[in-house]
Amino acid sequence: MDILKVSAQSKPKSVAGALAAVLRDKGGVEIQAVGAGAVNQAVKAIAIARGYVASNGIDLVCIPAFAEIVINGEERTAIRFIVEGRQGPAKD
């Protein structure tokens, strides 16, 4: 599964566009964020991406998890959002 890394300086609309593209192509993606600012941008991106893929009948499912990663030789705790698309309810 592809991993999109988000920082506090990431633009949510840009991340959302990348997220939507990967979801349409592969059906799922992981978003990784370290720090409160990065997690904030990631959550905003997921909310925006939901609107982007809704027109394709895709609803987002998001599973948050912790991940231990190494940055510059230092172990850090990241928040990892596993985002998958599922077919929304049929519209009459």
Brief overview:
This protein is α+β, with helices and mostly antiparallel strands. The chain is built from two helices and four strands, in the order βαβαββ. It has a single domain (3-87), classed as Translation Initiation Factor IF3.
Report on this structure.
With 92 residues, the protein is of the alpha+beta class. The chain has one domain: Alba-like domain (Translation Initiation Factor IF3, 2-Layer Sandwich), CATH 3.30.110. It is built from two helices and four strands; from the N terminus they run E-H-E-H-E-E. A four-stranded mixed beta sheet has the order 1-2-4-3.
Features:
alpha+beta, four-stranded mixed β-sheet
Low-confidence stretches: none
CATH architecture, please? 2-Layer Sandwich
Percent of sequence in beta strands: 35-45%
Which homologous superfamily in CATH is the superfamily?
A: Alba-like domain
Q: Largest sheet, described in full?
A: 4 strands, mixed
Helix tally equals 2
Highest-level CATH class: Alpha Beta
Distance between the termini: 33 Å
Largest sheet: spatial strand order: 1-2-4-3
CATH fold naming: Translation Initiation Factor IF3
Q: Quickly give the structural class.
A: alpha+beta
Number of strands: 4
The total tally of domains equals 1
C-alpha Rg (nearest Å): 14 Å
Average per-residue pLDDT, rounded, comes to 91
The 3D shape can be described as: elongated
SSE order in H/E notation? EHEHEE
Helix content: 25-40%
Task: List the SSEs and their pairings.
Elements: E1 3-6, H1 12-26, E2 28-33, H2 36-54, E3 58-71, E4 74-87
Helix pairs in contact: 1-2
